[in-house]
Write a structure and sequence with these properties.
Helices cover 30% and strands 31% of the residues. With 202 residues, the protein is α+β, with helices and mostly antiparallel strands. The site of heme C (HEC) has 18 residues, from strand 3 and strand 9.
Length: 202
């Protein structure tokens, strides 16, 4: 005799097989659209200031650089960007905290999320980084630093660092006790040129 429980199980299994494609299809289509968005314009080759603005938005508007950001056009999602007429690909992105309350500190983790900062590992700034920050305090829109080559399986690619500021806006002041326009932090972008092998330069 077939038990009632087994009958329900069979009905459930049949229904599931029928409905699963209808439930999964929108998810798959949504993912494809956003993957396409991710790998093509405007998420590639954006001018550096725009890309930086999106990185700042991602950091301050929400929990950070989580997966959800892929769906939002105002959030950082860059694969490549244009800096000083060259297309660079992103290697890593680091936060430099410059708040009066917590002092100057460098977060080694790639694209850290704000909510994880209290436990995140950080170190003091190097001399080079502190000098870059001094230039930003003096009004530089960003500072370009040399970086060691980026190692890929075919060899080494030219890499640069760009440090760019995060200023306090009105919306920041409810938590950060500073004046509007105060430098609260910076991003340190490590960018490599996929076209330029280090040995090519010699
Ligand atoms: C709701 C409160 C809140 C608002 C609003 C806010 N922040 Fe923050 N911010 C925090 C907290 C909390 C931390 C983490 C502090 C820690 O590491 O313990 C932080 C950390 C930071 C840091 C890193 C500093 C460091 O050394 O950890 C920067 C940079 C920063 N905020 C910039 C901004 C900017 C720019 C805005 C406005 C656009 C802003 N924040 C708005 C609460 C806020």
């Amino acid at each position: 005799m077939i038990s009632k429980r087994r009958t329900y199980l069979v009905i459930f299994a049949v229904l599931f097989c029928f409905l699963a494609p209808f439930i999964l299809a929108p998810v798959v289509i949504w993912s494809m659209i956003h993957f396409f968005d991710y790998s093509s314009s405007p998420r590639s080759k954006s001018p550096f200031p725009e890309a930086h603005q999106r990185a700042v938005n991602s950091f301050v508007n929400s929990a950070g650089f989580g997966f959800y950001r892929m769906a939002k056009s105002e959030h950082w999602n860059e694969l490549s960007l244009i800096f000083e007429d060259t297309v660079y690909h992103k290697n890593t992105l680091h936060l430099i905290g410059l708040t009066p309350e917590l002092g100057d500190r460098y977060f080694e983790e790639d694209a850290p999320e704000k909510r994880k900062l209290p436990e995140a590992k950080h170190r003091p700034l190097t001399k080079e980084e502190a000098e870059a920050i001094a230039k930003i305090h003096a009004g530089a829109p960003w500072v370009h630093l040399p970086a060691p080559p980026y190692e890929v399986y075919q060899g080494e690619l030219e890499q640069i660092r760009v440090i760019a500021p995060i200023f306090a806006q009105q919306s920041c002041l409810e938590c950060h006790e500073v004046k509007e326009g105060t430098l609260l932090g910076a991003f340190d972008y490590w960018l490599y040129d996929p076209e330029k092998k280090v040995s090519d330069q010699n």
